[in-house]
From TrEMBL:
It comes from Paenibacillus germinis. This is HTH domain-containing protein. It comes from the Bacteria. InterPro entries: 2C-system_Tx_regulators, WH-like_DNA-bd_sf, WH_DNA-bd_sf. PANTHER family: TRANSCRIPTIONAL REGULATORY PROTEIN DCUR-RELATED, TRANSCRIPTIONAL REGULATORY PROTEIN DPIA.
Length: 127
């Protein structure tokens, strides 16, 4: 079985597995009834309910991609590092990091150098 990392296709294996289950259940049935429809809807519906709870401008798929990229690194990362890993613009990453920090999903740290502004570093909140 082929697995994908970050980026370009996080979660594709799960999506393909769910599709295979959906198609198998649909083609095995000889009769359409309410139980079959309920089963098919469960397989088709996304497991996450976060999509309806996300603030305006935050896309669920992009959010998952960014979270996967942050989780896959054990080190603290800059916004630039995460943008490069995810293949997303720096301004987009900053918006998502602000959201993730506000929601308490990501920790933000400041690294002070001898010159200039402090650098912001990020990692997933430890449990």
């Amino acid at each position: 079985m082929m697995t994908f990392g970050c980026p370009p296709f996080p979660g594709i294996q799960n999506t393909l597995t769910k599709y295979a289950q959906y198609k198998k259940r649909l083609t095995q049935s000889t009769e359409l009834n309410q139980d079959l429809l309920n089963d098919l809807m469960k397989l088709r519906a996304p497991k996450s309910v976060t999509g309806s709870q996300l603030q305006k401008g935050i896309d669920e798929k992009t959010l998952e991609l960014i979270q996967t990229c942050i989780q896959n690194s054990m080190d603290l990362q800059t916004a630039e590092d995460i943008a490069q890993l995810a293949g997303v613009s720096l301004s987009t990453i900053r918006n998502y990091l602000k959201y993730l920090t506000k929601e308490g999903i990501v920790d933000e740290f400041l690294q002070y150098g001898s010159i200039g502004r402090p650098q912001k570093l990020y990692r997933m909140k430890r449990k």
